[in-house]
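Minutes, project huddle
Topic: does the predicted pose make sense with flavin-adenine dinucleotide bound?
PN asked that the exact inputs be recorded in the minutes so nobody has to dig through chat later. Recorded below.
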Amino acid sequence: MTILLIADHDNRVLSDATGRALTALCAMDDAVHILVAGHRAGPVAESAARLCGAGRIILADDAAFAHGLAEPLAALVVSLAGDYRAIAAPATSGGKDVLPRVAALLDVMQVSDVVRIVSPDTFERPIYAGNAVAVVQSTDEKKLLTIRTSAFAAAGTIDAAVPIEEVRAPHGVWLARFEGETLSSRDRPDLASARVVVSGGRALGSAEKFQDVLGPLAERLHAAIGASRAAVDAGYAPNDLQVGQTGKVVAPDLYIALGISGAIQHLAGMKDSKIIVAINKDEDAPIFQVADYGIVGDLFEIVPELEKALG
Amino acid sequence: MKKILVPVKMVLDANARPRVRADETGIDLSGMRMSINPFCEIAVEEALRLKEAGQAEEVVIVSIGPAKAQDTLRQALAMGADRALLIQTDETVEPLAVAKLLHAVVMDEPPDLVILGKQAIDDDCNQTGQMLAALLGWPQATFASAIRAEEGRLLVTREIDAGLQTLSLPLPAIVTTDLRLNEPRHCALPNIMKARKKPLTIRMPADYGVDVRRRLKVLAVRPPSGRKPGIKVATASELVGDLRAAGLV
Ligand SMILES: Cc1cc2nc3c(=O)[nH]c(=O)nc-3n(C[C@H](O)[C@H](O)[C@H](O)COP(=O)(O)OP(=O)(O)OC[C@H]3O[C@@H](n4cnc5c(N)ncnc54)[C@H](O)[C@@H]3O)c2cc1C
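Predicted holo structure (tokens), as shared on screen:
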């Protein structure tokens, strides 16, 4: 039996999330086919073909897939669903958008945000913002899974690429129309896969100070920048930097929280980081309960000292 | 638009700390404060704003849950919704079954737009809106941070991993809300009193002929693995020394 994994990409680059989801699925002891649905996405298919653990690549190249919209993509996945024992996607914004649509069309109850595959039908997933972990057994014949990518390592690559098979887009009338997008600049490492993340909270006080304080430190540490919801809501940082229950979930080697109180919704997105550093002027801030290293003090004084000490 | 349907869920309050039962059967909700799921509250608010802007005539709220979920519905009515429906059950109803019940409600009503929260903060599934869109064959715009009604279509800005995306949807359509869509209003006391007189209908899942049996067996619910307590360091240079020793910087 085989598993179908829906690749996450932007038509040019295969995201690291796909390889992490592949690592998770390889534990199920089945062949994994990776579906690349995109527009002029040949290079993505070629990268997918070199992921260690991929059995075959299915490429559906059509203008309908240019922006990853749920309607055509769900129709395509349903048309391919046939014999696959499981259909999975990384729990990225794209995966979360499309997979439930597929699940309903196949009459399957999806398991969201899998953090551990216990057996081919049993999975662990966080609930209540990660305050509990549920072990669930799916009784549906097909399993539909989104994979929380921060819980799994990136897949390696191989030299000999696996075959790429092309399929056609299903016919249909797609109702939602793409109008435009505003993409964040990509001059920093990707938040979801960076080894080091520097995050700022409400304490930063303005977009300028957020950039002035976090920018150089992140640069020095080759880190991605993250933010709390309060910082995003206040306009200090763009929405795609939000870490937490309802933002991105990250698990870097080092997470540095600056002026973040540590609300459970924020912890949900970073408490599986290997080492957590917190700088906060309130010694009772809950962030210190999860921090490996804490400094009590004013971040505007401590961050420059930190940069100096780093040399 | 004539009608907007807003499904809402009652959940453990976002500020309460969930207690995992010692026998691993789930979360102990007894005596805990229950509230409207924050994302659903945002959905109610957005529907009301569309109505107040003259874009819709009626806002109907529906919830699937225990008798106590009437409180959640009354809150939505106090915010300004016109009427409410409770599909009453004490069982846990999974997103797929919720979507099937909502599908039946949509057939009864039928609304021009359904606005739902993108996820419930208890099971964190993030599925129901997309599933309902699939069952209805309607377009979907998930994770909305802005909605504009324009010439019979909806322009929806969505929060995606890479930034923001804007979609244009014909009606009828499904939208799921993200946190930055709006800030829900507080209910004034007179409105809370008035809401008591607004129509609230109660039905059972069986009235809709929907099979709500669970597809996922919950084998155990456990506390997450905790973190070891850390240390406080006095200075930045001490911190850097420790991080260097650990090979992190
Ligand atoms: C449904 C729901 C979903 C949510 N999802 C998320 C989510 O995904 N991500 C998220 O982050 N939040 C989320 N939240 C919000 C969360 O509850 C908190 O409100 C938010 O995380 C607080 O952000 P903060 O820590 O930056 O701000 P605050 O809680 O205001 O903390 C600011 C901290 O900065 C410290 N401080 C102030 N000045 C200084 C200084 N000069 N130097 C050092 N420290 C200083 C203060 O002591 C304080 O601890 C969600 C909430 C809800 C209800």
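Observations noted during the meeting:
- The two ends of chain A are 54 Å apart (CA to CA).
- Chain A is about 25% helix and 30% strand.
No decisions taken; revisit at the next huddle.
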